[in-house]
Every structure is written in structure tokens, then in C-alpha cells.
Amino acid sequence: MTDRELVDLAFTMLNRSYVPYSHFPVGAALVCTDGTVFTGCNVENAAYGSTLCAERTALVKAVSEGRRDGFDRLAVVGNSADYCWPCGACRQMLYEFAPELKLLVARSDRQFVTLTLTELLPHGFGPRSLD
Ligand code: THU
Questions:
Q1: What is the tens place of the pLDDT at every residue in 93-117?
Q2: Residue 43 carries which DSSP code?
Q3: Which atom of ligand 1 is closest in space to residue 22's alpha carbon?
Q4: In angstroms, what is the span from residue 38 Cα to ligand 1's centroid?
Q5: Are 77 and 27 in contact (CB under 8 A)?
Q6: What is the pTM of this model?
Q7: Residue 107, exposed/middle/buried by CB under 10 A (0-12, 13-18, 19+)?
Q8: Which tens digits make up the pLDDT trace of 13-66?
Q9: Cα-to-centroid distance, 17 and ligand 1 (Å)
Q10: Beta strands 37-41 and 26-32, pairing class
Q11: Does ligand 1 come within 6 angstroms of the Cβ of 77?
């Protein structure tokens, strides 16, 4: 799957977002090195802090299906003028399983930037930090 296809797939997830509070849909698509794809959207909650971000939805879907490694690229997209940067909690969750992950971060006009998770989360705290 090309980067463009992964970003476009993440855009298809925007209409699955449950966003009655922020009205800010986010879509995600996570592809593994073997080509398996896990998608996600944000799922909000009346207790706002219980909201799940789109990236974490995709990641937790993958882990709950038995995937713990081999994550290659993650597209994160929004309808915003600015790029839909992953929040700090998502960066941390992704770092646990995929410190080498590449991210494709898009804005509403579907332009996207490509960067690494370690660029977004330098000196991250991960499983090896506990050794
Ligand atoms: N959101 C995500 O889904 N991913 C992020 O990394 C940033 C924020 C969602 C959470 C909430 O539903 C909405 O965007 C506004 O914060």
C-alpha cells in the first residue's frame, strides 16, 4: 500500500468518528510490514477524559488482534487547516510497540507530511527504559 493510499484510507474513517462534543473527527490507518491494516477513528465520551483518539483506537485494535510488532506506517488525518498532529498520549502509546514507526500526518486538503515517531517523541520512555 502506498503512502497516498494509506492516507486516503484514513480519510474514509472520518465518517466513523463519534465526535458529538468536539466535532473534530480524526481518522487513522496503521499498516504492518506484512500489509495488514488496522483502521481507527476517535470515539468521544460524555466524560470527556474517557475519549479515545483515532491512533490509539487503531493501535489497540491491532494489539487486541495479537499484533505487537511489525508496525510500519501510520496515517493520521483530520479536517483541520493544520496537520492533525498526534497528541502526546498517542505518541507515548505508539512508542511502546513501534519506536521506529513512520507517520503520515495529513490536513483537510489531503496534503501530508512524513516523519518518524522519534522526531515527534525524542528520548521516549519505553519498555527498555525499565531495564
Ligand atoms: N484526537 C485524536 O483522535 N487524535 C489525536 O492525536 C489528537 C486528538 C481527537 C480527540 C478528540 O476526540 C478530538 O480529536 C479533539 O481533541
A1: 999 999 999 999 999 999 999 999 9
A2: B
A3: 15
A4: 18
A5: yes
A6: 0.97
A7: middle
A8: 999 999 999 999 999 999 999 999 999 999 999 999 999 999 999 999 999 999
A9: 10
A10: antiparallel
A11: no
